Amino acid sequence: MSAELLNHSPDLKRLRDEGYSVEIREGHLLVHDVPYVTAGKSIAFGTLVSVLTLANSQTTAQPDNHVCYFIGEFPSKRDGMPITGIRNQSQQMKLSDTITIDHRFSARPDQPYRDYYEKMTTYISILTGEAQAIDPDVKANMFRFIESKEEDSVFGYLDTNSSRAGILPLNDKIKGQRIAIIGLGGTGAYVLDLLAKCPVAEIHMYDGDLFLQHNSYRAPGAATPEDLKAGYTKVAYYLQKYGIFHKGIVAHPVYITEENVDELGGYDFIFICIDKPSVKQFLFRRLVEMKVPFVDTGMDVERVDGSLVVMLRVTTASAGKYDHLPERVSFADIDGDREYRDNIQIAELNMANAAMAVLRWKRMFGFYADLNHEFHTLYSVNSSQLANHDIAS
């Protein structure tokens, strides 16, 4: 219920989007991290609490009273004298199983508070104004971490970015999808990093390799020495890093072979981020037969006159458009990829290739406008040119 209230109640959403530490708990609205002055003229942080009046399960109604509770010491003015004008009662009171307040405030307005934004910011202003007289930089809207209480959310904490950007309806276009990533080397790891921020239901990782020291140089984030000593597989390493953020990540410490490829038939979309062309031959064939849409990533890196010449590629396939694959993707294992394998300082190339792939996926499902509907894209790093091919008719 907390997510529905925060997303559909304009007053609560405004509080959250402006950076206040908002929480809905057991029928109460809590605003944490509110600065105030103590009797000793120091600055502390407390929590304002208000009983919520709801119009329905998704939206708030106008507050039915002007009373607000407070957790913390009784607030003082800048000179250490108590703010008696708002004092109603100073006595611990248990409002619920998890909320015990210390004080009850009363700041009655000339007209009833229009909504909870007006009510809470009125009290915040009273307390913070005195604190800012001591430290002008202190404020209540610090955009601090807010843990999600949603049991149905795929995220470990509230997605305040989407609500602030106003893209929650767009998230519905990809929400609930089951995604697979084949290969968690450099590019696949960055695909995971981007997908973990998306409200897809599940992200399945397939890779049988160990996470070794050289992998850390083209991986998102920073591996610790303890991580490198642990002997993780790549998928186990990324699960313990990203599983905290996204609840639907699943590790498969195996390679895709002709024996297990059929289990990919249940996914809504697949990202292929492997550098062994012969594997792609049976993988593509089976995905086409199972009508599973996918994007294949790749890069060509050559050393020329002491510099690297780079071409990034994203090739997409979906129902009705598969005929371009043999022409655009090589299925022959050759030794020409040694520059890619040997040059580990290419995190930016992996990141760019992953971003191209994820952007293509989001365009396919309507998150971004798709004006070209191309199925093959090449990006020349050295000339900064983008070329689209195989435009859908």
Name some characteristics of this structure.
single chain; 393 residues; alpha/beta; 12 helices; 25% strand
Q: Could you please describe the fold and organization of this structure?
A:
The strands form 2 sheets. The chain has an 8-stranded mixed sheet, covered by helices on one side. A 6-stranded antiparallel sheet has the order 1-2-3-4-6-5. The two termini are about 45 Å apart. Strand 10 (about 270), helix 9 and strand 11 form a beta-alpha-beta unit. Helix 2 runs parallel beside helix 3 (about 115-135) and helix 6 crosses helix 12 (about 345-365). The mean pLDDT is about 90. It is of the alpha/beta class. The relative contact order is 0.09. It has helices spanning about 1-10, 10-15, 115-135, 160-165, 170, 185-195, 225-230, 235-240, 275-290, 325-330, 340, 345-365; strands spanning about 20-25, 30-35, 45-50, 65-70, 85-95, 100-105, 180, 200-205, 250, 270, 295-305, 305-315, 375-380, 385-390. The chain is about 30% helix and about 25% strand.
Short summary:
With 393 residues, the chain is of the alpha/beta class.
Write the layout of secondary structure elements.
Blueprint: H1 2-8, H2 10-17, E1 21-25, E2 28-37, E3 43-51, E4 67-71, E5 87-94, E6 100-106, H3 116-134, H4 160-165, H5 168-171, E7 178-182, H6 186-195, E8 202-206, H7 225-229, H8 234-242, E9 249-252, E10 269-272, H9 277-290, E11 294-304, E12 307-317, H10 325-328, H11 338-342, H12 347-364, E13 374-380, E14 385-391
Parallel strand pairs: 7-8, 7-10, 8-9, 10-11
Antiparallel strand pairs: 1-2, 2-3, 3-4, 4-6, 5-6, 11-12, 12-13, 13-14
